[in-house]
Amino acid sequence: MTRVGGDTLVAQIVRLVEEAQGSKAPIQRLVDRIASIFVPIVFAIAIASALAWLLFGPEPRLGYALSAFVAVLIIACPCALGLATPTAIIVGTGRGASRGILIKSAQALEVARAIHVVAFDKTGTLTVGRPQVVEYMNCAGIGEDEVIRILASAESRSEHPLAAAVVELAATKGLALSEPTSFEALPGRGIHATVEGHDVWIGNAALARAHGFAELGDTALARHEELGRTVLVGTIDAEPAGILALADTPKAAARDAIAELRRMDLRTLLVSGDARRVAQAIARELGIDEVRAEVRPDGKADLVAELQAAGHRVAMVGDGVNDAPALARADLGIAIGSGADVAVATADVVLVGGDPRGVARALRLARATVATIRQNLFWAFIYNVALIPVAAGVLYPFTGWLLSPVLAAAAMALSSVTVVSNSLRLRGVSLES
Predict the structure, then answer these.
(1) pLDDT tens digits, residue range 380-396?
(2) What is the pTM of this model?
(3) Under 8 Å between Cβ of 152 and 169
(4) Homologous superfamily of 101-128+251-355 in CATH?
(5) Which residues are catalytic?
(6) CA angle 7, 362, 249 (to 5 degrees)
């Protein structure tokens, strides 16, 4: 698809980064509340110190009082406090964008650092997303090509990757497809269509058994499922038609992505609508900790809610339309940028290149950014707490020295420079394991 202007990928990336950099993190709202109390207290301290110098200070009392009053106000200026969070967010989100990690909000950064479980959709997320028919068994007496032609015609109205594989098989054989006169998608099970007057069902084994393939046994499916293949079974006019075994290759970086998450002490989970043996085979190959198989599209969000109810902070990684509810329900939704628009729109983080290793990188970046924010806030608070008494003149009885407003201004500027410099370190933070 060709796009122009504000609809281009670059324009969307720029818009997402700008929105993230302009958003306010929850920790910043806490800082704002503290500052709303801190500023009046500083004014009270400045007035109290000025009165103390006027009443008990040496001559010229008014000069010392004014100097202390101004120095306290300058040294306590919450500039560093105000810069602590936004500078880290700007640098952190910019660093992520340079690596193809688009973080939509500052809140996502704070949530990401506290994730316990990372749940993955399979097709298009951990796999290439272009399954191919690797084996076919004809079960009808009307000829192999005719069965494939009818089944592919029925699937031609479906947007599912498995349907595309069946249509592609027919195309490689040069078969001319017919437009279905009726079509119904059955999420998580298959499809039902009418093709040239034939009643066609194609989908999982349970659907086939319910519509004309009652004698279908597990033995015919087990070999393929143990190899991680998805099996589609078709019936035509309530009679067995064909069995297709489809394979979807895992992405080259998928195993490394899972290994990185496990090194970060995160629990990994595969959520798939495939048969249990298929999902378990993929999980074994990639090193995933746990499998939830045969999950219907509307059940993914329920699964996320179940994990959250058990006390887990959950990140959901997906790319399809049926992943959108789970992405929205999760504490952190991570979408593969090459996936469906609704998944990208729903997620908190978008991986532009589709590399699953971006999940671990995003979580590392979030941890580093939040750690930097906390460092900035610590030093900003310590600076104010330590130097306000100095500006008020507590050292004068011992040293005969009172901090001048000029030095207070220099120290205040130095604190802001320190916070900004600490935030800029995020530009060089390593996102690799």
Answers:
(1) 877 777 778 887 777 77
(2) 0.77
(3) yes
(4) HAD superfamily/HAD-like (3.40.50.1000)
(5) 121
(6) 80
